[in-house]
Design goal:
By secondary structure, the protein is of the alpha+beta class. Helices cover 41% and strands 20% of the residues. It is built from 16 helices and 14 strands.
Length: 476
């Protein structure tokens, strides 16, 4: 029997507001343990939470960007459970009347476009953090993270392969980055993803028993965890075993998932309305104001880049895939209206370097002014394209202006006819056979001779002049 996987994703994203969700503590990382806390986020007696208005605004932005409807009756609930990192013994979350529901995200995987349903986007708070000591028989707890604002974005079980899940996460993160509501750094834990996965016989409508995967700290890990789980569940089913509904942890080193606990159900948490935060609703006008404040989102920017600049979808996709890169492109364009040339640099050598270093363009040490200057130097014939690439890498290494590097290393293009002629004579004398070939009608021989002079000039010869001069010399 052939099985089909069915995958749903739950993404938690930490909002980048200045303060926590329900108190005035700073929303920061990396400060001394248990110093960024107050009676509210510790749940001390008498403390009352107050919703951070910017958390709500960011949440509505995200909900609208994922095409969700904002509910007209919204409330918070307490999700009750005991764990040492949860000082109040409950988490403020949203249960049956969440902020928003029924949205979608359009994704593309292997050239195939598809719409994935978003079940809901809701607000909640984060818990503290347990720090397990390897040398001591106890654990530490740091409550600094308690009360940090989170959004939970839940997809419908409409993803049918690990690759689709990967594409969904990539596009989701891109939108969140455009909205500038989170740094989306998975390594820091500001973006976390849990995956529900089940198998069903091919063509069957009814979903199988699902497992929930946790502890995947990169999109690659999500893909690997899901692939492992598909193999594991397939083997179970083929061996006549039943799948157990449970939560499983992905072990990055062993590349396996391990059972953690049986999966809890909603009723286990004894959800009830949070009495300290009254239900509320929005006026339509308020929602429309937030909608009007949304920045241009990736799909709209893609379309604009294709329509205004005539880029192919493939080219425009690279540019818009990172908001910083797209902004950089537009900053260059303001100074130098050569969109095709600028795009070639950004899509080619610069994107390759960003991938190599695994950084965003902001961290590359390149300014739009310097790139524009470099392109201008190619345009006015000061350097060849080939040499310019080398200059670019030196610009990244040294943070110097392109003019400085070109003059220091004497990289200017040789456009002096006498100098070029001297080199041509040298090459012609040393390549009698190619000269004869050319005279016998082999056009390719000319390109070979051009290449030889180019080599002699260390890539600095002006290629157009060179070609004309060699052709003229051979005709003699
Ligand atoms: Zn606090």
């Amino acid at each position: 029997m052939e099985y089909e996987p069915v995958i749903g994703l739950e993404v938690h994203v930490q909002l980048n507001t200045a303060t926590k969700a329900f108190c005035g503590c700073a929303n920061v990382f990396g400060v001394r343990e248990n110093t960024n806390i107050c009676p509210v986020c510790l749940g001390l007696p008498g403390a009352l939470p107050v919703l951070n208005a910017l958390v709500l605004k960011s949440a509505v932005k995200v909900a609208l960007a994922f095409n969700c409807s904002i509910r007209d009756y919204i409330k918070f609930d307490r999700k009750n459970y005991f764990y040492p990192d949860l000082p109040k013994n409950f988490q403020i979350s949203q249960f049956d009347k969440p902020l928003s529901e029924r949205g979608f995200l359009d994704i593309e995987n292997n050239g195939i476009k598809k719409r994935v349903g978003i079940t809901r986007v809701h607000m909640e708070e984060d818990a503290g953090k347990l720090i397990h000591s390897e040398s001591e028989p106890f654990s530490y707890v740091d409550y600094n993270r308690a009360g940090t604002p989170l959004l939970e974005i839940v997809s419908e079980p409409e993803l049918f392969s690990p690759e689709e899940a990967y594409a969904y996460l990539t596009d989701l993160k891109m939108i969140l980055r455009y909205l500038d509501v989170s740094d989306c750094d998975m390594e820091k834990g500001s973006l976390r993803c849990d995956a529900n996965i089940s198998l069903k016989p091919k063509g069957e409508k009814k979903l199988g028993v699902k497992t929930e995967l946790k502890n995947m700290n990169s999109f690659k890990a999500v893909k690997a965890g899901l692939s492992f789980e598909i193999r594991r569940q397939t083997e179970c089913l083929e061996g006549g075993e039943k799948i157990v509904q449970e939560t499983r942890l992905w072990d990055e080193k062993k590349e396996q998932t391990f059972s953690m606990r049986s999966k809890e159900e909603a009723h286990d948490y004894r959800y009830f309305p949070e009495p300290d935060l009254p239900p509320f609703s929005f006026a339509q006008k308020e929602i429309e104001e937030i909608r009007a404040s949304l920045p241009e989102l990736p799909q709209a920017r893609l379309k604009r880049f294709m329509d205004s600049f005539g880029f192919l979808e493939k080219e425009a996709s690279v540019l818009i895939s990172d908001k910083d890169l797209a902004d950089f492109f537009e900053a260059c364009l303001k100074v130098l209206p050569l969109h095709k040339k600028i795009a070639n640099w950004l899509i080619g050598p610069i994107s390759a370097e960003l991938n190599n270093r695994n950084v965003s363009i902001c961290a590359l040490g390149l300014t739009s002014e310097r790139l524009v200057r470099l392109i201008s130097l190619v345009e006015n014939g000061t350097v060849s394209n080939l040499v310019a690439k080398d200059v670019l890498f030196q610009m990244l290494e040294t943070s110097k202006d392109p003019d400085v590097i070109i003059s220091e290393k004497n990289l200017s293009q040789v456009s002096d006819t006498d100098e070029l002629k001297k080199m041509i004579e040298e090459v012609v004398a040393a390549n009698k056979k190619s000269v004869d070939d050319y005279l016998a009608g082999k056009e390719n021989a000319l390109m070979y001779l051009v290449g030889q002079v180019m080599r002699l000039s260390q890539g600095k010869a002006n290629p157009k002049m060179l070609r004309d001069l060699i052709a003229a010399r051979l005709k003699q």
